[in-house]
Amino acid sequence: MQVAGAAFLPHNKPMLEIPYFLSDISTGFSPLYGVSYFDNETICTRGDVCIIKMYNLQGSLMESIKIPSGNFPQDIAFKQNGDLLYIDRRDKSVNIVRNAQIQTLIRPMGPRQPHNMCSTSADELLVMMDSKNGEETELVRYSGSTEIQSMTKDQRGRPLFSSGMYTRLLTENRNLDICVADWFARAVIVVSAAGELRFRYTGFPRDFGEPFQPFDVTTDSQVNILTTDFRNHCIHILDQNGNFLRYIDNCDLHDPRGLCVDCADNLLVAERNTGKVKRIRYYDEILN
After folding, report:
1. At CA 19, angle to CA 15 and CA 22, rounded to 5?
2. Average pLDDT for residues 16-26, to the nearest whole number?
3. Within a 10 A sphere around the Cβ of 202, how many other Cβ atoms?
4. Cis peptide before 10 (omega within 30 of 0)
5. Distance CA 243, CA 183 (A)
6. Repeats (NHL): which ranges (predicted)?
7. Which of 70, 163, 193, 235 shows the smallest number of beta carbons within 10 Å?
8. Reported pTM
């Protein structure tokens, strides 16, 4: 069963027949876990140490932010105004970096622990919550520090997401759908803004390779969905309704862990073991 998402008609922007590598940035993280992009051409990277590194697209280090607790950031995101957010999982908090000061924005009560998050076009925050006993995963929408929506079950009363303390990176599409890379479920799960299940993508059949293992997910100006396939060293591209469009598997990717797109629809891929962020062009620059 599919549930319709919000209507969104993008410009017809053709994909290149063969995507190509543009540049890379060596972050020094080993492992490198994630990358986020802000529209002033700043990218933010995280690894397994208590530092967040910010680079420009030319590869120059602009700023290093140390996490006061000494914990590594579980996830990072940008608000619409450019403020940086990060999750301190051991501290069970979502924190905001503003004017070189760090403040706690969200600290859930009870057994819930924030694990992953993204900012929305309405400047709200979507946070994946684990319970301490690992029995339930909850997707929570916040306005500021106020909880306004909780999503756990589909229309038939079944869990939307896998249970357990696993990575479930997420993003909001331009049609307001919420796209979740559920690593343990081996699926990209897409729900509407109202929390209704739209579809689950579990990979596209190939004659070779390892089982589909999505770690991260992003979307582009065409409302297409892109996800990393960690074990098969490639990227899957889907349309907004979950139909497979193509792979990006020709740009010498190794263990792609995180990804995002820049303002020109170039793909930024964080390689876990090399510590590099690779920039890839996959759209033609000429609009039809």
Report:
1. 120
2. 97
3. 14
4. no
5. 19
6. 198-241
7. 70
8. 0.94
